[in-house]
Amino acid sequence: MKILVSLVSLIAFLLVVLPGPLYKFGIVELGTAFTGFRFAVYAGGAALALLLLQVIFKRKTVTFGSAAIAVVFSAVAIAMPLNMMNTAKSVPPIHDISTDLVNPPKFVAIAPLRADAPNPVAYAGEETANQQRKAYPELVTLNFVQSKADLIVATEQAVKNLGWELVNVDASSGLVEATDTTTWFGFKDDVVVRVNDEDSQRFVDIRSKSRVGRSDLGKNAQRIHTLINEINAEITK
Hints:
- By secondary structure, this protein is of the alpha+beta class.
- The protein has seven helices and six strands; from the N terminus they run ααααβαβαββββα.
- The protein starts with a helix and ends with a helix.
- The relative contact order is 0.14.
């Protein structure tokens, strides 16, 4: 019984930990990876049930160390997928976020890099815009008094500070494009920053879009907030 509990809890743990790297390196498809999450919850529950049976019927075989490991492995296997599910329910199922919903910044240098991506380079449309307005009303066009050149430099440095891949800097057009690759699954999400001159003010818009997946679990909005904070930090240096 002790060996069975340890084995099932380990399998549950691996089912939730390995799908990300396996997908990242092209070993399994995304659907298979998410299926692993579902089975991780089942396996984690089974491991806890088996541990309970062991405590009730074979108490002498229970050791603190093995029981603790089984509980931790099972808890991780259950908690991580459920946390993702709860996050998915709390945010709209969209993956294209922009501070300008009427005229979102367009990807230029990044466009060919997304040629084979399931999510097309074009903006997702008014339905997505309406969902974003309700979920992230704080994401609006930013305005600055700094020069266009200074804002481009600050944005470029902010991208580098965040460890994103800098794809394009076009100072004349006021565009900065970058790609952020997530650590666990290796998802590539693209970002474009547009700086416009209008009299004594500069207006900055940021757009972040996932290459795959229907819902981004709020990641693109979070990324825009992070970039805004980093740009502000650069400007105030």
